[in-house]
C-alpha cells in the first residue's frame, strides 16, 4: 500500500514530458541521478532551461522507479500467494492419502463383482451389498469425491483462505496500476479492467470477460448454470496477471523493469524477434557472427596495442543449472546440493572470445582444451595457449607440441613437478647446472611417453 501511495504522490505532481520531445532514456536517467544526488543549492544555480530539464527528468524517472517498486511488491505477493497454496495442497494431500487409499480399497471390492460374467444382473446389487454395506460404500464414495483432485487443479480450496489478505491490497492495485498489453495479454488486461469497474459494486455484473478463464480455472469459476463465482474469478485473473507480468505480455509506462520490447519498431516486434530466434540463433550462425566480431576488433589499433592475437588464454566458469538435464553434473564445491555445467572459453590477447564449449559438470579442463583451440573459426590463429593447472597433463604437452602449439600452463606447486627430456643425452644448460646433485632425480632421464 505504501508503494502504491508513493506512486500516486509522484503522479500527483502532473509533470510529463512533451509528446514531441524524444530524449534517450539513458540521458533522462543521467539527469535524474544528478538531481537525486546533488544538493538543492547546486540545482538552483543551474541555468533555468537546464534546471527545468533536470527536475522534469527526475520526476519522470521517479514515476518509473515508483511504479517498478509497486510492481515488484505485487509480483512478490502473488508469488507467495500461489506458492503457499501449492505447498498447502501438497501437505493436505499427504495427510489424506491414507483416507483416500482406504476409500479406494472399498470401491475396488464393490466393483469387482461387476467383472464377474457368471453373476446375473439381478443379483449384482445384492452381491455387492453383501460384501460391502450400503452405508460403508456411500461413505467411501463421498471420501473419494472429496479427496480426488483433477490433474490440472489450481489449488483453489487452499487459496480461498487467503482472500481476506488479497482484499487488503487489491482495490488499490485495481485503482492505481494501469497496464498496457500486446495481443497475447489482451484477455488479462480486459479482465483486470472489469475487476476495477466492478470491485466497488455490492453485486458485480455477470458480463465478465471469459477469455481469461483457462481450462484449469473453469471448474471453479463457472457454475453448471453459467453463473460466475466472483472470488474464484478474482484469483483466476491474478494468476494470469502474474504469469503475464513475468512474460511481459502486460507492461506499464514509464518503467525500467516492466516496459515493453516497442511495437513502434518493426524489427523489435515479438513476431519478428521470434522469427529471428528460430531461424538465426543456432550454433553455426553464432560462430559466423562471432568470427565477424573478432575480425572487426582486430582492425582496431588499440587491439593491436594489447597483442597481435598469437596468444590466447583458456579457462572455465561454473554455472548452477536449476533444471533437470543430463548435461549437468554434481560437484558440492561449486554447485552445493545442485548440479551444474562449466562454460570453457578461449580468449585472445586482443580481448576477443574465440570459442567456447559447455562441459557437463566439472570435467578436467585438459579433456576439452584441444577441442576449444582446434575448433575455433576466427581469423586469429593463436599458437601459444595459456591455462591454469586444471588443463595440465603430460599428454596435453605432447599433443600441443605435435600440433605446432606452445602450451604454457600456470602450474600450482611447480616445485614438485617432474620434468621430462626428449633427448636423454641433451644438455639443458642453466637448468641442469643449477640443479643440485641431490635433486637430479627430479630431471627424469627417460623419454617422453
State the end-to-end distance. 73 Å
N to C succession of SSEs = HHHHHHHHEHHHEHHHEEHEEHEHEEHE
What is the arithmetic mean of pLDDT? 84
Task: Count every beta strand, where a strand is a DSSP E run of 2 or more residues.
Answer: 10
Sheet with the most strands, sense and barrel status? 6 strands, mixed
CATH topology of the domain at 283-411: Nucleotidyltransferase, domain 5
Helix content: 40-55%
Shape category: flat
Low-confidence stretches: 436-449
Summarize the structure.
The protein has 449 residues and is an alpha/beta fold. It contains 18 helices and ten strands.
How would you characterize the overall build of this protein?
Among the domains are: 94-147, no CATH class; 283-411, Nucleotidyltransferase, domain 5, CATH 3.30.420; 418-449, no CATH class. The chain is built from 18 helices and ten strands. The chain has helices at residues 2-12, 25-37, 40-44, 48-111, 124-131, 134-147, 156-160, 163-176, 186-198, 215-221, 230-247, 270-280, 283-298, 301-306, 332-335, 369-374, 394-402, 430-433; strands spanning 180-181, 250-251, 311-321, 329-330, 339-348, 353-360, 384-387, 406-409, 419-421, 443-447. Strands 3, 4, 5, 6, 7 and 8 form a six-stranded mixed beta sheet that branches. A hairpin with a 4-residue loop joins strand 5 (339-348) and strand 6. The chain is flat and about 105 Å long. Mean pLDDT is 84; it is low at 436-449.
Amino acid at each position: 500500500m505504501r508503494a502504491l501511495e508513493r506512486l500516486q504522490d509522484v503522479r500527483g505532481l502532473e509533470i510529463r514530458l512533451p509528446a514531441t520531445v524524444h530524449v534517450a532514456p539513458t540521458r533522462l536517467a543521467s539527469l535524474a541521478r544528478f538531481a537525486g544526488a546533488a544538493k538543492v543549492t547546486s540545482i538552483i544555480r543551474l541555468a533555468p532551461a537546464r534546471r527545468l530539464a533536470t527536475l522534469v527528468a527526475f520526476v519522470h524517472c521517479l514515476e518509473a522507479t515508483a511504479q517498478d517498486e509497486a510492481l515488484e511488491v505485487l509480483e512478490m505477493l502473488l508469488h507467495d500467494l500461489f506458492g503457499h497454496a501449492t505447498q498447502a495442497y501438497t501437505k493436505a494431500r499427504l495427510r489424506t492419502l491414507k483416507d483416500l487409499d482406504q476409500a479406494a480399497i472399498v470401491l475396488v471390492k464393490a466393483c469387482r463383482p461387476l467383472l464377474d460374467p457368471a453373476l446375473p444382473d439381478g443379483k449384482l446389487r445384492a452381491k455387492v451389498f453383501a460384501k460391502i454395506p450400503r452405508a460403508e460404500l456411500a461413505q467411501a464414495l463421498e471420501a473419494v469425491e472429496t479427496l480426488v483432485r483433477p490433474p490440472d487443479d489450481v489449488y483453489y480450496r487452499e487459496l480461498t483462505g487467503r482472500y481476506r489478505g488479497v482484499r487488503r491490497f487489491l482495490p488499490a492495485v485495481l485503482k492505481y496500476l494501469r497496464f498496457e498489453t500486446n495481443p497475447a495479454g489482451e484477455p488479462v488486461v480486459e479482465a483486470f479492467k472489469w475487476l476495477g469497474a466492478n470491485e466497488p459494486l455490492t453485486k458485480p455484473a455477470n458480463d465478465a470477460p471469459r477469455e481469461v478463464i483457462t481450462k484449469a480455472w473453469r471448474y471453479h469459476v463457472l457454475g453448471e448454470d453459467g453463473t460466475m463465482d466472483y472470488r474464484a474469478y478474482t484469483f483466476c485473473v491474478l494468476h494470469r496477471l502474474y504469469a503475464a507480468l513475468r512474460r511481459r505480455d502486460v507492461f506499464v509506462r514509464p518503467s525500467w523493469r516492466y516496459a515493453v520490447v516497442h511495437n513502434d519498431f518493426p524489427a523489435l516486434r515479438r513476431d519478428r524477434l521470434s522469427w529471428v530466434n528460430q531461424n538465426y540463433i543456432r550454433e553455426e550462425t553464432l560462430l559466423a557472427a562471432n568470427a565477424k566480431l573478432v575480425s572487426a576488433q582486430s582492425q582496431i589499433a588499440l587491439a593491436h596495442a594489447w597483442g597481435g592475437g598469437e596468444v590466447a588464454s583458456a579457462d572455465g566458469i561454473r554455472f548452477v543449472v536449476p533444471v533437470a538435464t543430463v548435461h549437468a553434473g554434481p560437484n558440492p564445491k561449486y554447485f552445493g546440493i545442485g548440479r551444474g555445467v562449466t562454460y570453457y572459453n578461449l580468449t585472445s590477447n586482443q580481448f576477443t572470445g574465440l570459442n567456447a564449449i559447455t562441459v557437463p559438470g566439472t570435467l578436467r579442463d585438459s579433456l576439452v582444451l584441444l577441442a576449444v583451440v582446434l575448433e575455433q573459426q576466427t581469423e586469429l590463429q593463436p599458437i601459444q595457449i595459456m591455462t591454469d593447472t586444471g588443463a595440465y597433463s603430460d599428454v596435453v604437452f605432447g599433443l600441443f607440441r605435435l600440433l605446432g602449439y606452445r602450451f604454457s600452463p600456470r602450474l600450482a606447486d611447480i616445485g614438485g613437478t617432474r620434468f621430462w627430456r626428449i633427448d636423454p643425452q641433451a644438455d639443458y644448460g642453466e637448468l641442469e647446472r643449477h640443479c643440485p646433485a641431490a635433486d637430479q632425480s627430479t630431471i627424469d632421464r627417460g623419454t617422453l611417453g
